[in-house]
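step=predict obj=Acyltransferase n=256
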Amino acid sequence: MPKNQNTFSSLKVLRRRLASRAAHAGWRWMQQAGAVTAQTPGRLRFGAIGPHTRLAFPQGTVFGEPWIRLGDHCIIGEQVTLTAGMMPDLDLGPEPVLVLGNGVVIGRDSHVIADTRITIGDDTFCGPGVYITSTNHSYDDPHEPVGKQWPRSAPVEIGPGCWLGTGAVILPGARLGRNVVVAAGAVVRGEVPDHAVVAGAPARIVRRWEPETGWTPPLRTPAPVPIPDGVTPEQLRALAALTESEQRAAEAQETV
């Protein structure tokens, strides 16, 4: 290949590399600058937003924010929809419509649609793509398109400490107790007691904890052992290396 073609190819690769770095740097800057916090609310004026709460950029659809209250240390992922009321610019009265407790995490691409009150308790974690709504379409009139019929609404209450898996759907009127686990893709309606695991569509209880009997049915794996206080990262790496060497030695012994 002629020398000038080699030079042109090298310059083309260099320009592409520099453009890629600039694009990534610019996007990181936009993510930092566009994030919503109590100190940097941008155009959003929530009824309350606690310290260290952060809405990642880009945000999804957000309206009715004067009737939305976000607690402390909440993490709202990218493209999360938070709405209060059926449409923007409505007067929803003196009380909040959507309330998130402290430490709530909502994964990216999730939707929380509060036409009537939705409450999410402290330290509830939602995976990506979770859908929580207090309103459902009605289909009473067989001659009218479903989308044109007046919807039905019912409050939703999610207790503290819950875990909602990827793609879970929480329907109007649902009431989840404390530390409820909702499996990925489950569709929940009605009441779920404390310390229950629900799965399926419609969701049903597949495991439950009672003080007298523990978990029913029993857990299939042992509970994870917490890392003791005071253990350093260096000690953890050394322990992991030791465990790997012991496992290799055991495998070698089995081969012999």
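step=describe
Residues 101 and 139 are 34 Å apart (CA to CA).
step=end
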